[in-house]
Amino acid sequence: MNIEQALLSFTLAAGLLTITPGLDTALVLRTAAVEGGKQALLAGVGICSGCLLWGAAASFGLSALLAVSGFAYKMLRIVGAIYLGYLGIKLFIRAFSSTSPSSTAEAGVKVGRSTHHSLWLKRGLLTNLLNPKVGVFYLSFLPQFIPEGVQVWSFSMLLALIHATEGLLWFLLLANATELLSSWLRQRRVVVALDSAMGAILIAFGLKLAFEKAR
Length: 215
What we know:
Oligomer: single chain
Structural class: mainly alpha
């Protein structure tokens, strides 16, 4: 395929992957509903920054290490599982620790205003970087859309940038859509349900990552 065909094909394929429900979408949705759209977008920026870093790693061949080294893959997998489990347990504690009838979400917003915005950025970035499947995915996915005669590193980064841009647009749409329902989503019973569900999702992803069979 030529460059134009490669870019169009990748844009369509990456767009479909972006809107497919997964951990990233769940994280952004929960953050938007409970902590606000700005925080959700920061988490989305962190996730997309992780995609760019994985793209750079794949173009340099670094993520090939994850594909051929069982030990490296296992170590990153364990660290990622622990981190996801930590986030999940933290959400469960937050969901049931407050006995106040006032909205838990309002408290979350107040905490957000007093906390540096890098908290949500780091949360999104680490969630992405500590998932070795993303690295292996980039290593196997990007080469399919690199035509002959181009500089591999620069073209790989262009593809990763397209994917990250699509992700940001998707997260922006999710955050804005969630804001329309903010008054309902920030009721205490809804927040407890969201935090509990997101906590369960994170723990489930962590367990799946931890007990994944050796490749």
